[in-house]
Structure formats: structure tokens, C-alpha cells
């Protein structure tokens, strides 16, 4: 066996053993790794892989493939494709540099547009996370809005440019980071209801106060805590009447469009100008795979393209645009390849069933909360999020201390709540058991 085969075989053996592991703990003390000294002499690469696995595994969360049978989640196919992507090591910037991976990403983009009902001419780019997806989509918005105002952003920069207003119900980390990177400042908050949904009447009032400034309206297909969907038809009518760019933060909620039974919750969102959503959250694709889609390709390519620098502009070799014209990076791995594999493994029916199953799991978990002493469901379960509180904030935080492996603390309507999401790798039964035990522990300490 060649050295490279020996090294890869050991890595595969460790990965397979880890993926099938149950009951994995997560130690906080990683001193052996953090304080380790860089050796002077070279080491055996195979032994380095062995040492890496031995040192890291105690500090890893439970394997992300759990929570749904691999053939029904797409995660196993995506993981295999991700390994192939690393082995191929292609710079998927242009069709000329890597015809195969660029074509695979183009196919995955076409499938996504079709599944989610997005305009056929939309450009689709694969990026790392929600922040970069939002950055990519809103960079296109910034480019289009300033061009409409007669401002040459490429030559004149932002100094002295017409100031763009961004309206949103809230500004989660992905949106806040993107706005900061784009130099657009803080979002203007728009009033919401008790589930965090934007009120269309509040949006109309906020737009009226802008007095003609160029604007971006950010809507959500799934509130970060409650999973609630903004009123797309009404909100988009108001935004269009003003002339605003409409962006939809899809997270996991936009996947509802792939299900005939759930499509109604995102009705109207297809009329937006841009969308972002995660492939990792729903499909089980390995981390660092979010998607930005823009209905106006010329705006996205104006914002992201033109990064060739010293490289000679090649003749077109494919009907689809080069990947680097739709994302911030030029040197990039083919993040769309695992998406292609997950979609190919699931098929249209499998994606719909996967989305429906995740929502059903959330609804079943919410119903089961009635068996947990003191638990109060605090959201209407319309997507994959379940929120629960336990009377006072202090008691809820006490339960959170024992349930943090599955439940995250969030703030909703001024009170602390715990949130669980039935995304890829999530285990609702384990989440319920953890919550029950945490409640017993708090009660025992109070006795």
C-alpha cells in the first residue's frame, strides 16, 4: 500500500467509526491540543492522523449524520461527495479551470431553482455560511440600487453615495455582519407580532418615513427562534410600490417550497429579488455550504465578477456563468458538489419528505412538552423550531444549564426561552429526554 493510501485509509477508518458512534461526550478541556508544541523534526503523516483523531474526539459533539437514516437524509451521499471534493482539490472558479466541478455546481443550482420555485434566470452561488450568503445577495442589491441612482460604485466607492436604508424585523448575526462588511450601517427595525413576524402595516409606515431613499427590505422564511414566516405577499407589494429591493433570509424555512404540503407558508417569496438559505441545515451537507440566489444576474455579476486581475479573460466555454462571477472568492473549493450529491440521492420526492418529516418531528416534540413538568410552549410550530420556557427566566436558565447539549437559549418577547431545531443531525427524542432530566435536576436542587 502506498503511503498516501495508508494515510487516507486511516482517516476513513476514523471517520466511519466516528460517524456511527453514539453517546459521544464533549470535553471542554482541550489543553493538550491548544498548548502542544510544534515539533522540530518531521513526523509520519499516518501517525499524525492517528494523533489528531485521538486528541480531538473527546472534544467533538455527537456525529452530525445522526437523526435520520442516511438514505432518507442525503447526508451520507453529501459526506462522500465532500471527501471526493477534497481529494479532487479543484479550484472551482471557472468552467475553464475545472469543467467537471463547475458543471456539477451549475446542475445543483438548476435543481435548487426548480425545487424552491425561484426564477429560472436567477444566478446561484455556493458560499460558506449565512453571513457570506447575505453579504453576496445584498452586495448585488447595493450595486443595483446605486446604479439606479446614477452612482458609479466601482469608480467612486461609497463615500458620498446615496445612503441605502435596510429595513428588517430584526438583524440576526448573519444580516448584521453582512451590513457591516458592506458599509450599509444598522438595519432599521420594523414592528413585529408576538411570533416575530414582520407586520406589513409597520413596513408600510417605515417605508413612508424614508422619503425616497433607496431601500432594501429583508424578510424571513423562518424566525431564528420561532420559525415564523413573514407575510410575503403583503410585504412585497408594499416594497415594490416603493421601489425597494426585497431579500428573503431563507435559512431552513425556504425549503418548505419543496413540499406541496408546506409550500403555502412561503407563498409569494418567489417574487423577491434575492434569497439565501442553508444546505447544511436541511440536507445534512457538511458545514460551510450556504446558498445565495439573485433574480437579477447582472446585479450579482456586477458586484462579484471582475476579479481576474492579471489573468487573461478566456473565451466562454459553457452556457452557464463561471462560479467566481457569483461569489466573493476566486480560489474556492466546489461547495456545490455535496449539494448535488444530496439532491441526487434524495430526488424530488425525498427532499419533500425530508422537509415534511422535520416539521412533523418539531410538532410532535411540541406536543410532548405537555408531559414535561412546568414546560410552556411559547411558539406556534410551523417550521423546524420548538421554543419552551419554564415560568421565570431564572428557572428557564437553570433548566438550560442541564439541557444545553440540545437546547439553545434565546430571547423571545422579552423573556428567556429554550429553542430546539429539527435540522440535520438533530434527535428530538434525545432532546426531550435531556429536557426532562434537566427539569428533575432543577427540582432536586430546589427541594
Structural account:
With 447 residues, the protein is an alpha/beta fold. 44% of the residues lie in helices and 12% in strands. The longest helix has 33 residues, at 336-368.
Question: Care to give the gist of this entry?
Answer:
By secondary structure, the protein is an alpha/beta fold. The chain has 16 helices and eleven strands. The radius of gyration is 23 Å and the shape is globular.
Number of DSSP-assigned strands:
11
- As for the number of domains, it is 3
* Average of the residue pLDDT scores: 90
The largest pleated sheet is described as: 7 strands, mixed
The computed structural class is: alpha/beta
Order of strands in the sheet with most strands = 1-7-6-5-4-2-3
- The run of helices and strands is HHHHHHEHHEHEHEHEEHEHHEEHEEH
Overall morphology? globular
Tally the helices: what do you get?
A: 16
* Gyration radius, in Å: 23 Å
- Would you identify the CATH H-level superfamily of the largest domain? Type I PLP-dependent aspartate aminotransferase-like (Major domain)
Low-confidence parts, pLDDT < 50 over ≥5 residues? 64-72
Beta-sheet strand percentage?
Answer: 5-15%
Amount of helix: 40-55%
- Under CATH at level 1, the class of the largest domain stands as Alpha Beta
Assign the CATH topology of the largest domain: Aspartate Aminotransferase, domain 2
Distance between the termini: 63 Å
Name of the CATH architecture of the largest domain = 3-Layer(aba) Sandwich
Amino acid at each position: 500500500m502506498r503511503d498516501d493510501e495508508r494515510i487516507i485509509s486511516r482517516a476513513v477508518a476514523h471517520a466511519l467509526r466516528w460517524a456511527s458512534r453514539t453517546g459521544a461526550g464533549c470535553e471542554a478541556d482541550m489543553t493538550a491540543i491548544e498548548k502542544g508544541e510544534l515539533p522540530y523534526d518531521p513526523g509520519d503523516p499516518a501517525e499524525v492522523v492517528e494523533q489528531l483523531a485521538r486528541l480531538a474526539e473527546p472534544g467533538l459533539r455527537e456525529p452530525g449524520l445522526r437523526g435520520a437514516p442516511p438514505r432518507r437524509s442525503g447526508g451520507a451521499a453529501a459526506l462522500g461527495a465532500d471527501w471526493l471534493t477534497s481529494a479532487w482539490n479543484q479550484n472551482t472558479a471557472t468552467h475553464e479551470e475545472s469543467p467537471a466541478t463547475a458543471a456539477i455546481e451549475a446542475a445543483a443550482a438548476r435543481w435548487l431553482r426548480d425545487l424552491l420555485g425561484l426564477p429560472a434566470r436567477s444566478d446561484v452561488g455556493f458560499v460558506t455560511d449565512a453571513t457570506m450568503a447575505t453579504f453576496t445577495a445584498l452586495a448585488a442589491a447595493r450595486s443595483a440600487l446605486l446604479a439606479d441612482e446614477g452612482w458609479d460604485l466601482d469608480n467612486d466607492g461609497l463615500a458620498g453615495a446615496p445612503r441605502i436604508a435596510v429595513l428588517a424585523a430584526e438583524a440576526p448575526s448573519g444580516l448584521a455582519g453582512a451590513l457591516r462588511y458592506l458599509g450599509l450601517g444598522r438595519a432599521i427595525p420594523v414592528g413585529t407580532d408576538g411570533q416575530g413576524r414582520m407586520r406589513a402595516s409597520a413596513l408600510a409606515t417605515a417605508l413612508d418615513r424614508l422619503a425616497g431613499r433607496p431601500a432594501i427590505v429583508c424578510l424571513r422564511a423562518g424566525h431564528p427562534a420561532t420559525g415564523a414566516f413573514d407575510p410575503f405577499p403583503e410585504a412585497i407589494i408594499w416594497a415594490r410600490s416603493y421601489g425597494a429591493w426585497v431579500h428573503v433570509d431563507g435559512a431552513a424555512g425556504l425549503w418548505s417550497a419543496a413540499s406541496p404540503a408546506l409550500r403555502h407558508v412561503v407563498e409569494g417569496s418567489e417574487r423577491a429579488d434575492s434569497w439565501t438559505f442553508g444546505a447544511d441545515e436541511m440536507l445534512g451537507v457538511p458545514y460551510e455550504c450556504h446558498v445565495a440566489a439573485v433574480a437579477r444576474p447582472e446585479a450579482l455579476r456586477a458586484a462579484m465578477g471582475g476579479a481576474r486581475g492579471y489573468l487573461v479573460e478566456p473565451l466562454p466555454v459553457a452556457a452557464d456563468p463561471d462560479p467566481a462571477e457569483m461569489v466573493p472568492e476566486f480560489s474556492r473549493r466546489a461547495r456545490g458538489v455535496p449539494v448535488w450529491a444530496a439532491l441526487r440521492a434524495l430526488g424530488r420526492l425525498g427532499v419533500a419528505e425530508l422537509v415534511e418529516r422535520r416539521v412533523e418531528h418539531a410538532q410532535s416534540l411540541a406536543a410532548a412538552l405537555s408531559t414535561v413538568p412546568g414546560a410552556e410552549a411559547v411558539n406556534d410550530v410551523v417550521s423546524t423550531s420548538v421554543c419552551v420556557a419554564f415560568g421565570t427566566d431564572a428557572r428557564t436558565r437553570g433548566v438550560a444549564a442541564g439541557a444545553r447539549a440540545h437546547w439553545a437559549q434565546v430571547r423571545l418577547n422579552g423573556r428567556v426561552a429554550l429553542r430546539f431545531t429539527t435540522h440535520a443531525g438533530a434527535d428530538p427524542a434525545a432532546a426531550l429526554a435531556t429536557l426532562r432530566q434537566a427539569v428533575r435536576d432543577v427540582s432536586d436542587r430546589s427541594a
